[in-house]
Write a structure and sequence with these properties.
Shape: globular
Distance between the termini: 7 Å
Oligomer: single chain
Helix content: 25-40%
Order of helices and strands: EEEHEHEEEHEHEHEHEEEHHEHH
Strand content: 15-25%
Structural class: alpha/beta
Largest sheet: 8 strands, parallel, barrel
Strand order of the largest sheet: 3-4-5-8-9-10-11-14
Number of helices: 10
Radius of gyration: 19 Å
């Protein structure tokens, strides 16, 4: 799996990255051994980029990822984590479960902090949990409601850390493409993590954000490409999540319509979703999560396979299920 440089930095990422929210028991718990095996399977498939955050399982994802990477050559992979939420011990809640979607004890609480001091404290905690000597990519995590502080304090702190060589590349992650566009045009970030806004289901980032990234040499780390799981199955059904809640009827109907076109052309919804997500020239990597080794093996195989036919994409466009100006895959995404 080929490496792609992140912005103008020296950091490179594989075309397929492992999103590690599931290692923090997102939705359902996974065993320690399964978490380690998932990272090992990703490595065996050529994945060399791993994304995590303190938010994921109140630090559990970072700890598990660090344990899984411990014996692997440090210069052979890249890790990203995020700043903006500090983890503060909360003994009063240790008998409850985390209310934000992770099946872990609520023994910490998240505190928004995009100050310079908050950035440094967050990174110090992440380095300890990961057990690493450095972090390759640091992203501002969901700064939607804190844009002024993030721009005036957190970003300059990251800019300085990058200049000092403490971190390799810096950027922003968000579900709101407008927020990402602001950072792309007003700062000197290396990357943006676009979460669910450039997928086979919907492409709101296409018209403004993606061209701005191309113009300014900012890499897109394309995450949430299955839209929280709705596109991860061949036949979408009621009860699947979209934006971390049950998919609304209209959204489910659109996913089902795309799946029907997939079936007519001998492909699958997950295969089409992955290859489409990687096809835009601004995209450096597609980041997907996995609840176990088999899921990451399947996704790696789909990324490396030939993309769906031109006729398939043409039918999606003709049916109004895909924007006609979206770049389409023309060769195996995993090819060298």
């Amino acid at each position: 799996m080929t490496g792609v440089r992140v912005g103008r930095s020296r950091v490179t990422v594989s075309r397929l990255g492992l999103g590690c929210a599931q290692l923090g028991n997102l939705y359902t718990p996974i065993a320690e051994a399964d978490a380690i095996a998932t990272v090992a399977a990703a490595w065996d498939c050529g994945v060399r980029y791993f994304d995590t955050a303190p938010h994921y399982g109140l630090g559990l994802s970072e700890r598990r990822l660090g344990d899984a990477l411990r014996t692997l050559p440090r210069d052979a992979y890249a890790v990203s984590t995020k700043v903006g939420r500090l983890l503060v011990p909360d003994r009063s809640a240790s008998d409850r479960r985390d209310p934000e979607g992770f099946d872990v004890p609520a023994d910490h609480r998240r505190v928004w902090d995009f100050t310079s001091d908050g950035v440094h404290r967050s990174l110090e905690g992440s380095l300890v949990r990961l057990g690493l000597d450095r972090i390759d990519v640091v992203l501002l995590h969901d700064p939607e409601s804190h844009q002024t502080t993030a721009l005036e304090e957190a970003y300059p702190a990251l800019h300085e850390l990058r200049a000092q060589g403490v971190v390799g590349a810096i950027g922003v992650g968000s579900k709101q493409w407008q927020v990402l566009h602001r950072f792309v045009t007003e700062t000197d970030v290396d990357a943006v993590m676009v979460a669910g806004r450039y997928t086979l289901l919907e492409q709101p980032a296409l018209g403004t954000l993606m061209p701005a990234c191309e113009r300014r040499g900012v890499s897109v780390l394309n995450a949430g490409v299955f839209n929280s799981g709705l596109l991860a199955v061949e036949r979408p059904h009621a009860g699947l999540p979209y934006e971390y809640v049950d998919a609304p009827a209209a959204v489910l109907d659109r996913a089902r319509a795309i799946a029907e076109v997939c079936a007519r052309h001998g492909t699958s919804l997950p295969a089409a979703a992955l290859t489409f997500a990687a096809a835009h020239p601004a995209v450096a990597t597609v980041v997907v999560g996995a609840h176990g080794p088999d899921q990451i093996r399947r996704n790696a195989a789909l990324m490396a396979a030939d993309p769906p036919s031109e006729e398939f994409w043409a039918e999606l466009v003709a049916a109004g299920l895909l924007r006609p100006d979206a770049p389409l895959p023309t060769s195996p995404v995993g090819a060298a």
